[in-house]
Amino acid sequence: MTYFDAFKTGNLVLPSALLLHFKELFPSSEDFLVWQFFYLQNTTALGDVSPSQIAEIIGKEVADVNQSISNLTENGLLQYRTIELNGEIELIFDASLAFERLDSLLDTQTPVATAQNPKIN
SUPFAM superfamilies this protein is in (predicted)? Predict the structure, then answer.
């Protein structure tokens, strides 16, 4: 099962590979922190979390959170779309793209990792 498949089934635990490949995936630690709020929103009944709420919780300006959202989107780690619901426009964020990127990264590194870390019997 891939990390993306695990995410789709509701697995709430962040895989260790996400942390071990942090610098290859995330532009900055602040971007990773912001991404975690959208991951939490996607995997729990938390409901919508706005950039202003995230900013207040982490002690940053809304502009900083919006910049992190832009960074995550540009790096293919977060996707959002707007929908109209009962006459109101809402943003839907999808944090699963980070797991797709992680799976892709691990797929390309597997032969190298195996060669560098041979099994010891």
Answer: Winged helix' DNA-binding domain
